[in-house]
Each structure stands twice: as structure tokens, then as C-alpha cells.
Amino acid sequence: MYPKDYSEFPGKNEAFFPDFLLKEWMVAVVFLVGFMTLVMAEEPPLGEIADPTNTSFLPVPDWYFLFLYQLLKYKWASGPFVVIGTVILPGIAFTALMLAPWLDRSKERRPLRRPVTTGIMILSLISVAALTWAAEVEHETQMESNPGEKPQNTKVMAQDDEGYSIYQQNACIRCHGDQLQGVNGPSLLGVGNRLSHEKITEIIDDGRGAMPAGMFQGNEQQKKVLVDWLMKQKQK
């Protein structure tokens, strides 16, 4: 059985060329002009000059990957569960996107009449926007902090200690600085006054804020030495 000819639907059809194609071109031109206006009106933000000797630099992905970057900071999507944040959730999202035409085959054009497709789209947009916003807020907070400020009467233990060696080997130094002053992460100066032994261990294991879980690569004995060393970083 052949589909009906368009001529049987008066007033509900139009010629592809030039009517429909002209409308598409007009919309494309308006979007392109608006986009180029924004590009020329706003200078792109540039970071610091690349410095290969700066071991404290913590790279951040481009904005369109920030939502995945933020996702990996949560305990249920990082560390031993990292496969959830890297494979399972993105896989479900992309699979749903590919199957959307088959999940909802309604001929309705009104969003409220297509709950499956509309629901997937709204959920996706909200999730991506919220995760991107959270990652950007954390990044801006770190950039606006003053990592070079050293609290008064703060004692920094000698760098030849075993604890400092473990601190350095596990890349803690990249975020917290060689003097615990904080670079891309919070300052650890005086951390022994603020946190207990158990709390520091918990943060190392589970992460907190921009620090993901599973960053520490040493054994339990090395972790204990590191925590004991951090506990000695106290203000007089």
C-alpha cells in the first residue's frame, strides 16, 4: 500500500524547494550571525602561559567535558566504582539518545504528547547543566583562593621526613603545594589543628570537593605514615 500523495493534504504541505529550503537557510543565517556576533564581542578567556616546569598545574577539561569531569568526583562514580562514571552512565545516555526515535514513534509534534522523548531530553539537559555548573563553581573557587598565603605561626615539618616523601610521590604536591600552601587545592597548613586522624584518612580514601576518591596509590602502612605526618602540621 502506497502512502497518499501530498496533494491530498491541502494547506498542510509545501514544496521542498524553494519554500522549505529557504526557511531553513533563513534560520541558519540568523543563528550564524548571532553566533558570530557573540564570538567577536567576547574575547575568549586564556589561561596562564604553559610552563613545563610547573608541577603544581592541575589540568581541567574543556567546558563540554566538564560534566563528565564532575561526575567522576562523586564516590559512587569514582574509585572502585569508576566503571559506573566512565562506562555505565555515559553508555546509558548515548544508548538512549540513539534509541530515542524507536522509543517514541508517535506522530505528535507537541512535547507534552511525547512524554518519553521529552522526558529523556529534559533529564539530559538538566543533568549536563547541573554537573557543568558544579564543576565550574569549584574551579572558580579554587582560582579565586589565595594559595600563597601562609598562616602565621604555622610549623611545616622537614621535607626529608618519610611522610613528606610519600606526600610527594603520590602527587599530593601538585594540588597542595610543596609547602602545603595550596595551589590547585586547599592549603594543608595547620591541618593537624583542624582535622582528626580519622577524618584525614577518610578524605584520602573517599575524596572531598574537587579531590576524587582513589588518588592515593600507596599501601596502608604508607597511608598511616602520611596521615601521621599531616597530623604534625599544626599551628603553635
Structure in words:
- It holds the Pfam family Cytochrom_B_C.
- This is C-type cytochrome.
- Its main location: membrane.
- Keywords: Electron transport, Heme, Iron, Membrane, Metal-binding, Transmembrane, Transmembrane helix, Transport.
- It is a multi-pass membrane protein.
- The structure is a single chain.
- The chain is an all-alpha fold and 236 residues long.
- It has 3 domains: 13-43; 58-144, Orthogonal Bundle (Helix Hairpins); 162-231, Cytochrome Bc1 Complex, Chain D, domain 2 (Orthogonal Bundle), CATH 1.10.760.
- It contains 9 helices and no strands.
- The protein has helices spanning 16-41, 66-71, 82-103, 115-144, 162-169, 172-176, 191-194, 197-206, 220-231.
- Helix 5 crosses helix 9 (220-231).
- The longest helix is centred in the middle third of the chain and has 30 residues, at 115-144.
- The protein is elongated.
- The termini are far apart.
- Mean pLDDT is 79; it is low at 146-155.
